[in-house]
Amino acid sequence: MNNIPDIEFRQVRYSYADGYEALRGISFAIGHGEKVALLGSNGAGKSTLLLHTNGLLLPSAGEVVACGMPVEEKTLREVRRRVGMVFQNPDDQLFMPTVEEDVAFGPLNMGLSAEETELRIAEAMRAVGAEGLRKRSPMQLSGGQKRAVALATVLSMRPGILVLDEPTANLDGRTRRTLMATIEGLRTTCVIATHDLDMARALCPRAIVVDEGRMVADGPTAEIMRRPDVLELLGY
Ligand SMILES: Nc1ncnc2c1ncn2[C@@H]1O[C@H](COP(=O)(O)OP(=O)(O)O)[C@@H](O)[C@H]1O
Ligand SMILES: [Mg+2]
After folding, report:
1. Tell me: the pLDDT tens digits for 166-193?
2. What is the domain range of residue 213?
3. Would the pLDDT of 1 be above 80?
4. Residue 24: is its pLDDT beyond 70?
5. Per-residue pLDDT tens digits for 119-133
6. Mutate to test the pocket of ligand 1, among 47, 163, 196 (most ligand atoms within 8 A of CB)
7. What is the domain-level CATH number for residue 199?
8. Dihedral, CA atoms, 88, 91, 95, 98, nearest 10 degrees?
9. Which ligand is nearest to the CA of 210?
10. Ligand with smallest separation from the Cα of 57
11. How many domains does the chain have?
């Protein structure tokens, strides 16, 4: 055990090319094994923040540190090996002819052997309850199946830190519960951007709330969800 945070943001600011400042001074530290919900209304900056955790976006000012490494050009490969990102839209994650090739892509890219890759595929498909989909074409899956497979493509790399952008959006009740059980069973650190307050309460002891690129709350989820200003912000 050590006390280096898994993810740390230090006064992070980010402006898009059109000049819009989507992050306006974000600071927090997430320790190993924590599960943290990232809450906020549409356009608050959740996706922009998540994209900074593995260097898909680099700050305009301030610093992101993952497992003690500053996230910058020369650490990207190592950072991305540790921080696995599941995008909001699974179509952004799935591009091979078959599911198993998509799930194998990360491990093979990391230089793992065919045998180890096969183990990783089996493990990841089992974790998301999608063993039956291995030979299918990702393009032909249902929305919920795509979500599960997109998660498997990231789990196969065994990231220590898992970042999920609205994983339960548009899922039916049963598929949503299956996905929640999968996430609950993971021992990795998780950061989950979501509008699904029930999931946040069920899975994440801690929540961070953002509004217009600023943090308005960071603390125990149950306490934060009793705050009138937060409920108002989230539309309750
Ligand atoms: N590529 C982009 N160019 C300019 N502005 C963007 C871009 N992507 C997002 N934004 C703006 O940044 C803000 C935060 O967006 P986003 O991080 O997607 O919010 P959330 O995920 O919380 O809905 C919004 O105002 C959005 O319009
Ligand atoms: Mg978003």
Report:
1. 999 988 888 899 899 999 999 999 999 9
2. 7-233
3. no
4. yes
5. 999 999 999 989 999
6. 47
7. 3.40.50.300
8. 100
9. 1
10. 1
11. 1
Q: Are 198 and 207 in contact (CB under 8 A)?
A: no
Bridge partners (DSSP) of residue 8 are 29, 65
Distance between Cα 45 and ligand 1 center (Å): 6
Q: Is position 1 within any domain?
A: no
Name residue 42's amino acid: N
The ligand that comes nearest to the alpha carbon of residue 167 is 2
* Helix, strand, or coil (residue 191): strand
pLDDT exceeds cutoff 90 at 90: yes
Count Cβ atoms below 10 Å from residue 70 Cβ, excluding itself. 14
Instruction: Evaluate: CB of 73 within 6 angstroms of ligand 1.
Output: no
pLDDT digit string (tens) for 26-70? Answer: 999 999 999 999 999 999 999 999 999 999 999 999 999 999 999
| CB 48 less than 6 A from any atom of ligand 1 | yes
Nearest CA to ligand 1 atom 7: 16
CA distance readout (Å), 20 to 12, 16, 38, 218: 14, 5, 21, 24
| 194 pocket-lining for ligand 1 (C-beta < 6 Å) | no
What pLDDT sits at residue 2? 64
Spatial CA neighbour of 178 closest among 158, 206, 199, 192: 199
Q: From the alpha carbon of 44, which atom of ligand 1 is closest?
A: 22
**Identity of residue 120:** R
Quick check: 221 and 204 in contact, CB under 8 A? Answer: yes
88 ligand 1 Cβ < 6 A = no
Interatomic CA distance for residues 234 and 159, integer angstroms: 30
200 lines ligand 1 (CB under 6 A): no
